[in-house]
Amino acid sequence: MKKVLVTRQLPQPAIDLLKQYFEVDLYTENRVIPREELLRRVEDKDGLLCLLTDNIDAELMDKAKNLKIVANYAVGYNNIDVAEATKRKIPVTNTPGVLTETTADLAFALLMSVARRIVESDKFLREGKFKGWAPMLFLGNDIYGKTLGIIGFGRIGQAVAKRGLGFDMKILYYDTNRVSVEIEQKYNATFKSLDELLKESDFISIHVPLVKETYHLISDREFSLMKPTAYLINTSRGPVVDEKALVRALKDKKIAGAALDVFEKEPEVEPELIDMPNTVLVPHIGSATIETRTKMALMAAENIIAVLVHNKVPPNIVNPEIYK
Ligand code: NAD
User: Fold this and answer.
1) Are 72 and 143 part of one and the same domain?
2) Across the strands, what pairs with 260?
3) Cβ(207)–Cβ(153) under 8 Å?
4) Ligand 1 pocket member 154 (CB < 6 A)
5) 226-245, pLDDT tens digit by residue?
6) Which domain holds residue 46?
7) Of 175, 205, 213, which is best to mutate to test ligand 1, by the most ligand atoms within 8 angstroms of its C-beta?
């Protein structure tokens, strides 16, 4: 029987599915699998179902001599050295699509929370400070009718645009690939350069993958272009935003606030962000709903089954060139 390592407890239907075909080695501790343990346990495995918190690099692939598939439980796969896997003809897969709407929901929830000061005012009430309605209590900023700038207009970026339309927002987007006229019309979206988008938007939501080109895409220069009333929302990957530059921008009032699901050095967070009232900080929960996490887990399992059982190209391959 072929062997599969699953690096953390996932929704049970996926584990049950894998168990129908494979000997499953499941890391059951409620923490990231320690590096040494990962290297040891992957050694005799044919398949690996891993998470964005696992670093899948050349060292690991050297140890895992039988490895025939790396199925990432995420749409982003910056934790995997894909070039190295490609060199060794190991297919790498991700979980696109099934988490699009869920992640867009969170991006919009963050946008609304920071603009309407939901977290701050919830804390105020819980601390017993609510003494009755007051005309100047927790004045935030309007959302409807404002300009929403979307950086990275792929699946999630477009799903956020759809939500923005429901709030009568003006949609701007920046992407290395301009989308078709049909898609622009569908979302009433206007293509802008990054600088134009930063200058004109009231809300800026980031949806690019983390790659070399997007590392610190938003840093001091970019913050200085934004409106002092602008809010930054990041549900992509932490290192896309220079977190120290963000602290400076917030302190210098270059922008009004920030809402973040992802951080540069997760699980660490810049301590100054924590002390600021105009930040909303959540622990990387973009795709965290029961429905979506179950779909993601099944998708990852099905990619493994495609390769190890049916000897087929897995449906969600990110390095299809290995089959050419
Ligand atoms: P996608 O591939 O559909 O969209 C990404 C878009 O970014 C594409 O349109 C691409 O052309 C664009 N892009 C790539 N490089 C760029 C660059 N240098 N400058 C501007 N645009 C660039 O991906 P998606 O499904 O929308 O997911 C986007 C990212 O969101 C993922 O890579 C992942 O890192 C992140 N994500 C986070 C969570 C979370 O839990 N917070 C959940 C899902 C996805």
Assistant:
1) no
2) 234, 281
3) yes
4) yes
5) 999 999 999 999 999 999 99
6) 3-96+290-323
7) 175
